[in-house]
Amino acid sequence: MALSRQHLAALLALCAFAMARPAAGANVSITTCRSFCGNITVDYPFALHPGCGHAGFRDLLFCIDRVLMLHLPSGSYRVLDIDYSYRGLTLHDPAMSDCRAIDRSPAGRGNGFAVEPWRAPFLAPDPDNVFLLLGCRASSPLFQGFPDRHLPCRNVSGMGCGDYYGCPAWDDYYDDGRRRPSGAAYGTAVPPECCAVSWGAIRSVNVSRLQCEGYSSAYSLAPVRAAEGAGGWAYGIRVAWQLPEANRGFCGACRATGGVCGHDEGSHADLCLCGDWNSTSNCDSSSDSARSSAAAPGTAAASLFLAVLVSGFSSLSLYGSMANM
Ligand SMILES: *[C@@H]1O[C@H](CO)[C@@H](O)[C@H](O)[C@H]1NC(C)=O
Ligand SMILES: *[C@@H]1O[C@H](CO)[C@@H](O)[C@H](O)[C@H]1NC(C)=O
Ligand SMILES: *[C@@H]1O[C@H](CO)[C@@H](O)[C@H](O)[C@H]1NC(C)=O
Ligand SMILES: *[C@@H]1O[C@H](CO)[C@@H](O)[C@H](O)[C@H]1NC(C)=O
Ligand SMILES: *[C@@H]1O[C@H](CO)[C@@H](O)[C@H](O)[C@H]1NC(C)=O
């Protein structure tokens, strides 16, 4: 029996259908990768489980006694907040100075901030975050790398050492009668007692390498109100994160098909977690999947339809059932 035109078309459509939709989507619980630490929600691109989240943020967050900690080569920081809408993390370093207390020692105090080179495209302090480096030596690389310019010290988003010198912390620090630094320090005194820099200017805040005695860090979420001075700043490190452009489409398609975005623990490539199988695209497609066993349902369905087809069902009823799919 020769296949009619309609039969052939139906057969081709069926084959395409069977190949494109073997798993018919997934229904993976969002709690597969979302978790809580204390009162902070840890969700994509961050994760506490291996294989969850984006690979750029792997081995980064740890929940210790309901306290969320972020580990970098420069040290461990407490995570105070994860702002998913503005893609910002707020970190606290207990060893850094603030407006109430100056924390300095000749060997350098505090972690500063340094990320692994491979992680740098994903995580960096916000451009509006100011690092206030304290007591850096004249031989510091901070003052050496700028032969043709003035000192790299400057106000960042309206925050600088001039205002910081107004903090009560300096009263205690200079209560032994030493002269308190003045706001006009930049350019005159070398090295200045305090040097404010943005992350973009130095790309790594390594307090010991910069030969400083300590540091402070502050950020502004809203425009700084001058009247409040440094007492009104938020102290901590505000970090911004970003994902590669291609990840957006990948993750959107993965979620739309009932999957949860993750990554391959070996290759670090994006992976869509579809329940009992993983896909390199989404839970509706198998062409490029990392699946092992789930090919069977689609194939079985195709053979069943094929059997129906050859056993003499009219092409009309077949088209009817196709239309309902
Ligand atoms: C997904 O599974 C949950 C329970 O596991 C169920 O309540 C829900 O209706 C399912 N959703 C779909 C679209 O199948
Ligand atoms: C979490 O709880 C602390 C107090 O334990 C509170 O200061 C903070 O604002 C809370 N954070 C969130 C995101 O609710
Ligand atoms: C899917 O990927 C996740 C994360 O990499 C992994 O933990 C899990 O074992 C994988 N599942 C399968 C079925 O390969
Ligand atoms: C910071 O600098 C010191 C001294 O140069 C170096 O030993 C250390 O590895 C650096 N730390 C980081 C996180 O780069
Ligand atoms: C930095 O800010 C202070 C206080 O607002 C201001 O007095 C000073 O002129 C600013 N310095 C520079 C270099 O803009």
Automatic annotation (TrEMBL):
GO terms for molecular function: polysaccharide binding. It is found in: Membrane. The keyword DNA repair does not apply. It comes from Lolium multiflorum (Italian ryegrass). GO terms for cellular component: membrane. Keywords: Membrane, Signal, Transmembrane, Transmembrane helix. It is a single-pass membrane protein. The chain crosses the membrane at residues 300-319. Residues 1-25 form the signal peptide. This is Wall-associated receptor kinase galacturonan-binding domain-containing protein.
